[in-house]
Batch of 3 targets.
Target 1
Amino acid sequence: MTELTKEQKQRVEELLSKMTLDEKIGQMNQESVSIVGGFDVSFEELIEMMTDGRISKEEFGKIMNTAETDYHEEDIRKGLVGSLMVQDPKIANELQKIAVKESRLGIPLIFGLDVIHGFRSVYPIAIAEAGTFEPELFEKTAAMAARESRAAGVVWHFAPMIDVARDARWGRVSEGPGEDPYLASVFAGAKVRGLQNDHSSAENYVAACLKHFVGYGACEAGRDYNTVSMANHVLYNNYLVPFREAVKEGAQTVMASFNDLNGVPNTVNPFALKKLLKEQYGLQGFVVSDANAIRECVIHGIAEDEKDAGMQAANAGMDMDMGTEIYAKYLKTAVETGRVSVETVNDAVRRILRVKTWLGLFDHPYVTKEAMERYETLPQEHVALSLEAAEKSIVLLKNENELLPLKRDMKISLVGKLAESREEIIGAWAMSWKEKDCVTILEGMQQEFSQVSYFPCGGPADVISEEDIQKAGEYGDVIVAVLGELVSMSGEASSRSDITMPGRQKELLQKLLATGKPVVLVLMNGRPLALQWESEKISAIVEGWHLGIQMGNAIAHVLSGTCAPEGKLASSFPAVTGQCPVYYNHPNTGRPAGKSKFTSRYLDAPFDALYPFGFGLHYTTFEYSRLKVEECEQELHISVSLKNTGKREGTETVQFYMQDIAATLVRPVRELKGFTKVTLQPGEEKTEEYTLAKENMGFWNNEGVYRLEDGIFHIYAGGNSRDTLMQEIEVTFEHVITDRDYD
Ligand code: BGC
């Protein structure tokens, strides 16, 4: 990322010196666009009424058609608004004009939005794309989203979402890069680079917002917004790692999480915001609260009233208030009465103005006409990139007797309502996609195969059609069943206590099996599912996640073998929900699960994941051999031999793990330390090498101090986190220098 020049910094200081306290507080205020008029209840209540069925979608639509939108024009004119969430370039330009031309100091607005996995060209949800183990691809898709959104006036993405998440019941696992801190860090860095680094034109980059800082992914029992309780060393070694790396990469902004950390909600937590983020990690830009979070501090039980919540948030280092107007209402008095210092306000405003300067908003505040027209039709390279990401994200979970790939001229009965849906391939949080860009699975299959008949049969929330099942059984040589979750079943506020296939889909599968035809299960879902039954009964299972606009083509290409599956799981799949949280990098305990009853196990369920982190099959097979580990001054040189022992070309992700056998704190049974990807022809053999810097072999203790401890380590290599080769090595760390020592 480019630093501000001395002159730019000076300009920020000059501007700051001219601002009144009201104008400064205005910069710290992000307004939400509100819907007003025409009805007696609040907009939020109206949405609730529709959600719980008190009014129908049609009635809601009618009310909204007569309602007016409040864009806070008057406050913008007075310099009392710093940011808004808008995604229409014409509206963005109109509001920006008021800020730039009509407010006293002409400070531009910063328009933000949740662009989590694509703007117009929606690509796979993050948990899926992380499974490509290709950060370069993640960087490219992010850069594409940056260009598309900037052409609509959105210059600030509330992304990447980099909450490490171990509990698949939590609906937001869909938005992040999975359960592993190393993979999450590598992907976090890639996304920041993709969003922020192309400064060849002011139209090519946006500011990233890392979220949610921190620990949100560890909400108890996987229930969204729930309390979080964790040991410090777990926080330091897992949940903080991707944030630390992404701030180092130059991320401009960070969003604080709703949850409490050691009893203090992060919205008002000076340890999280000031000490860690700003002092230790060196965040240059600003921190924004999550939606309404400052107000919720009262309900949380940490603030007496809104005034108190605002004062605590400002003093904790919260620079911008998302959506509550509490700063706008109370911060001035808090400063005048000495409860919040002018320096605190100045620091926040300086950070916000610096990000606006870095974005080039003072020189390029508007969306140009050319930009507005640029994506009326999606460019071919955006379609191609969405397809590549979708294809590479698909994970083959099971393929008994090589049922897949399917022959092009086979008669295929395509089943499942999800197969014909456009909105269900898009995934939670996408807002700016267009129906005309989407390829359904039905369309993709019809393109790829010559004989496809579609029998809806049912879906995640439907009744089962016996007639369709019978016809599907009669027609096809094979049944391809597209089942799983609706988009609304993952994402925010979408936790599930039972993560087996929702609705009557197991019954549907049973009936399809009873037709006697082979069944391929193609899954569409936003979280790992508990697939114990399916893994026993169904011959072939393809994990398709929510892959975005090109999902239909991607699935069809993988089923036909035009493109071989190469994705891996970024998140472990439990056999049954009761195992949650299940994750590969757990500590051993003194009684690891074994045959004896008195070990850490269940009486009625497996201990281990059904499909572990890093897992994914191919249309070929790979054999690992000759793992070698050598110590070379400050590095370990690891090499392993990989042979394609099957009949087709395949691309494998070679994964390198480590275990610190004895340390001053118990360490995980395995920790991912690196990976490479390699494509091999049938019979071809290659040696894959990986260099592990010794400085990366340590861990943080409960005081947040990074420690490198001499001793025995096990190094593992393999195609997933469970099936690996192992080599032992003794390592000493004298003179290794790291930048991770914190007081
Ligand atoms: C979510 C954030 C999101 C924000 C703004 C919140 O409810 O937790 O992830 O960025 O809304 O839409």
Target 2
Amino acid sequence: MSRRRAKKVAVLPGDGIGPEVVGSALAVLDAAGAEFEKVPVDIGLGRWKRTGFALAEEDLEIIKQCDCVLLGAVTTPPDPNYRSVLLRLRRELDLYANIRPFSSSKLDFIIVRENTEGLYSGQEEVGLEESRTVRVVTRRGSERIAEKACDIAAKRRKLTVIHKSNVLRSDRLFLKTCQDVANKRGVLCEDMLVDAAAYNLVVNPQRFDVMVTTNLFGDILSDEAAGVLGSLGLCASANVGETFALFEPIHGSAPDIAGKGIANPVGAIRSAAMMMEWLGEATLARRIETAVSWALETGKKTPDLGGSCGTKDVAEAITGYLRKI
Ligand code: NAD
């Protein structure tokens, strides 16, 4: 009789509040009955200060042997010798789709952000009088992110392509490619300039369903969306490629509150639920989502949401609920 191999998850707590919120997410996974092998990997600024490597080659090899990654957050210092761990992971693992769901009783939309090109191409010339960053948009990159967005939009209402093609000629390729893919897939498709999208996110977020956009626009719009929802600490993300994925809350390492025990763990917990769904455990993922909604509805909130709970209080409320249902 063949036994299913236990899934291996590389656990990367990272810097600042990363270890605090990942600790909560792991406790919740445990209470939900998730079974997987944890492979801890030390990455980030702390590691760099100690060893000179934020992400060593051997770490990358260990990560590649796993099924997916659960990451907390990393601090990126303004030091030209420091290579961003996240950009490197996204590129080396070809995690080209960054999927960020935002939902509450008032809104429900998903931002699908291209994760490997655009203004985060890494192609830069830095000078004292003039600096340049190359914005890369390729047909292949646009096609595959549009396909991913259409996979999601096909099961929902519509796709909105967010761009700035009236000024940026590179976005004409992005827009046309997304429209062609949506037409081919039979997905209802509209488009909107990024400035109008930024405005509409605040005044009329209900009009959005699935948004697809380039790297920098997606980065900025998703923090804005988190603000509309109430806090960066609530929001989760999946960085997905063809066969591998990395799950992380959308917030950073929040040095201003690190170590105080007040970070909101919900974004990390929701990221862990997205991970379980990707690993084929949709029922378990839904149980975690239900427990999170119950905790928020019954006022188990950290200070970013106006509450007085600590990180552990919220995690314990959620684990307690999961053990009962
Ligand atoms: P940040 O997301 O860390 O924090 C922005 C604000 O939101 C802060 O006031 C912080 O206290 C608050 N906040 C964030 N997460 C929270 C949570 N879970 N609960 C309660 N409050 C929360 O962004 P920043 O301050 O611009 O960046 C800090 C560091 O994080 C920088 O080094 C940056 O490069 C890095 N960063 C990393 C990631 C990542 O790892 N994915 C993402 C963004 C920024």
Target 3
Amino acid sequence: MISKKFYLFVFLSILLLLFLFKKNMSPRIVVLISGNGSNLQAIIDAINSKTLNGQIVLVVSNKDSAYGLTRATQAEIPTLIFPLKPYKDLGKTRIEYDIDLAKKIKEYNPNLIVLAGWMHILSEEFLNLFKDINIINLHPALPNQFDGADSIKRAYEAFKKGEITKTGVMVHKVIPDVDKGEPLLIEEVSIFETDSLNDLETRIHTVEHRLIVQCVKKILDELNH
Ligand code: GRF
């Protein structure tokens, strides 16, 4: 006679298989970072709380010192350190670097690539290898304002000179030009007379953490339907 324990075992096994199948089927995200990885963390947290129906299959950093790598390891996400320097030392080009990086990422079969603090421009050669998926970048400024590095500091200084009254955050599609490409989400951020640079940075990062999750959700929802 088959015992109740056996039925329970079969039932739990089916649940486990369904869970693993669903996890394997959820959209695959690769995140590229260069530093702290607080935006990576926002995505990890949103996946863990089921706000996002996706999985991060790889975190790539061009710097081995990036704290985001620790965050990824803590979340049991595979990591890849892929620095440019060895390429430069061998006299290889940026395009060669980008193509090798693209090949490594392709092995993980992503449905979405998120640049979250990635400090390299991606060349056309890289982007051409991912024509059928979204590649998005998070930038702490409004479109066409303060492209490139130190955007928050430059916005703060412009505010102090009376040149601007507000700044913002955007998530945009990636093209082979710094912080350009069609904006997908934009949010304005106020600057106040009493703000220190640190105050503004904190306010902007808070918006970034929300906006990057919102944009990833928008893309994943489209993929899931
Ligand atoms: C963010 O401000 C992002 O907009 C910019 O680089 C910073 C990365 O922060 N491109 P973190 O590494 O996600 O904490």
